[in-house]
Amino acid sequence: MTFRMVDLIQKKRNGAQFSKEEIDWIIENYVTGFVPDYQMSALAMAIYFRGMTTQETADLTMAMVNSGKQFDLRSIPGIKVDKHSTGGVGDKVTLILAPLVTSFGVPVAKMSGRGLGHTGGTLDKLESIPGFNIEKSETDFIEQVKKTNIAIIGQSEELVKADKLLYALRDVTATVDIIPLIASSVMSKKIASGSHAILLDVTVGDGAFMKSVDDARVLAQTMVDLGKSVGRETVAVITDMSQPLGFAIGNRNEITEAVETLHGKGTHAFRTFIAELAQIMLSLAGVEKSIEAILSHLDHGQAYEKFVEMVRAQNGDPDAFDHLCAPLKTAYRIDILADRAGFVTEEKAYGMGIVAMKLGAGRVTKNDHIDFEAGIQLAKKVGDKTQKGEVLATLYSNAVITDELVLEFKSTLVITDKATSPKEIIEIIRS
């Protein structure tokens, strides 16, 4: 069946619903180049304002899945579990969570992305390990998971071609933050990646795409429903991204924090947060463990051993961890001091992510160079008490750190007389 793209744009502009055949035609012809970017941009904006029904979103997701290759992980024994975060600042969760889950014998075959703008990317962090290779063929990827139970690689060029094209277009046309397009983007990649079960970390707050819990809940429920509609056991966790995760924002220093956490160090709150996510992933694979049992794998080295095994399998140098865990080495560093005594009540994640990017730890465009040593090291977290003149954070860069950038960073910090107690996991959505 043949359609005219201009008629379909007009149809959505007027608020009508697409059929499955119409959606299949749009995606198929966009991938082949018959539908040009300017028409797809118009359609994305029409969807932004008019939305999509649950059925349309499901049809769009599967059309995107079918636009490229799908990975077949059936030859890997056991229930394969995947995890995806909708983005954040200081998010090194995958680096800790994947080997922790794998240490209980559950295979994790994961494809991750790079950072862009204020959000960090797992691949960029892993590449701060000398020699680490994030590019593997499907065959090598599967063989590594068979051998070690764990692999984290970059997304295959052949996987979900429509999403790769559409996401790049949405990024430059202000159509990123619309629930049907976010849900179909995330779930098409997770479905095509081949895992049996999926944990979705839906972030909410200052540093996330979703600014309200209500919006995050709608997105989470939409993705859970999409996963279950195609036979993937899916659980979504709504988590707080009003402040950065952990103390490190950057690349090499986030590897440092991940390695230290895998050695049983770190705050009780952060360790428990990781353990709670691990408990859900393990449960999806049919493995029931207590939080105490999961934490013991951080304390006694089983999770760290799996991390080292993955690094070696992907040509990384685990002997370089002594270097990786040393303080950041940059030409410039500036300590940020508290202007007053009190409690840290806000650390605005979005603003901190932008500052980290400007220091050299992130990129504005996908081709920008990353400085693995640049970044931010926090000394205090929300809820911590501080004295006037005490160090709150340190900025690191190989470029001159301007007074304007220091002021920009200071504007992300709020100190008041009232202590607050943030909660990492806000809600869990299972069905």
From TrEMBL:
Enumerate the Pfam families for this protein. Answer: Glycos_trans_3N, Glycos_transf_3, PYNP_C
Q: What top-tier enzyme class does this entry carry?
A: transferase
Q: Which reactions appear under catalytic activity for this entry?
A: thymidine + phosphate = 2-deoxy-alpha-D-ribose 1-phosphate + thymine; uridine + phosphate = alpha-D-ribose 1-phosphate + uracil; 2'-deoxyuridine + phosphate = 2-deoxy-alpha-D-ribose 1-phosphate + uracil
Molecular function as annotated in GO: 1,4-alpha-oligoglucan phosphorylase activity; metal ion binding; thymidine phosphorylase activity
Subunit annotation: Homodimer.
Output a single Gene Ontology CC term carried by this record.
cytosol
Please explain the role this protein plays, according to its UniProt record.
Catalyzes phosphorolysis of the pyrimidine nucleosides uridine, thymidine and 2'-deoxyuridine with the formation of the corresponding pyrimidine base and ribose-1-phosphate.
- Report the family membership: Belongs to the thymidine/pyrimidine-nucleoside phosphorylase family.
A single BP term in Gene Ontology: pyrimidine nucleoside metabolic process
Q: What residue stretches are annotated with the Pyrimidine nucleoside phosphorylase C-terminal domain?
A: 343-416
Q: Which organism is it from?
A: Lactococcus hircilactis
Q: Identify the keywords attached in UniProt to this record, alphabetized.
A: Glycosyltransferase, Metal-binding, Transferase
Q: Please list the cofactors this protein needs.
A: K(+)
The answer to whether keyword Transferase applies is yes
| Listed EC numbers | 2.4.2.2
What InterPro entries does the entry give?
Glycosyl_Trfase_fam3 (IPR000312), Glycosyl_Trfase_fam3_N_dom (IPR017459), Glycosyl_Trfase_fam3_N_dom_sf (IPR036320), Nuc_phospho_transferase (IPR035902), PYNP-like_C_sf (IPR036566), PYNP_C (IPR013102), Pyrmidine_PPas_bac/euk (IPR018090), Pyrmidine_PPase_CS (IPR017872)
Instruction: State what protein this is by name.
Output: Pyrimidine-nucleoside phosphorylase
